[in-house]
Amino acid sequence: MPVDDSTNDAPHDEVVAESALQLWSAAQTDFDPFELPSAEWPEDTVPVRDADIAVDTHLELDDVRAALGRLDGLKVVVGREAGTVSVLRVIPEDVPL
After folding, report:
1. Domain span at 21
2. Which of 15, 58, 68, 79 allows an S-S link to 88, with CB 3.0 to 4.6 Å?
3. Residue 96: inside a domain, yes or no?
4. Is residue 4 part of a domain?
5. Res 7: pLDDT
6. Is 95 part of a structural domain of the chain?
7. What is the pLDDT of residue 1?
8. Tally of domains within the chain
9. pTM of the model
10. pLDDT digits (tens, 9 = 90+) for 6-58
11. Which residues, including other chains, have CB under 8 Å from residue 55's CB and lie 6 or more apart?
12. What is the CATH number of the domain that holds 28?
């Protein structure tokens, strides 16, 4: 019988997702994502760098980047520039995939 090791493939995803949500929400100075419906969020938001998430979670940068890669399009929108991976936006739970 095959062993379900899906939790082993993504051991840090939930921690990284929670950190990304908290840091991204805190970085927004023009609106509060917890008080404004997601449909009304502005397009230009303040991104959160992978290094900041690594510091917050006490994880290695490579582990954070791998988790962000798996979460991209599911819980966050990720951008890449000059070797940095950034969370450009979180995907709220009220938005169907």
Report:
1. 9-90
2. 79
3. no
4. no
5. 47
6. no
7. 41
8. 1
9. 0.84
10. 445 578 999 999 999 999 999 999 999 989 888 899 988 999 999 999 999 99
11. none
12. 1.10.10
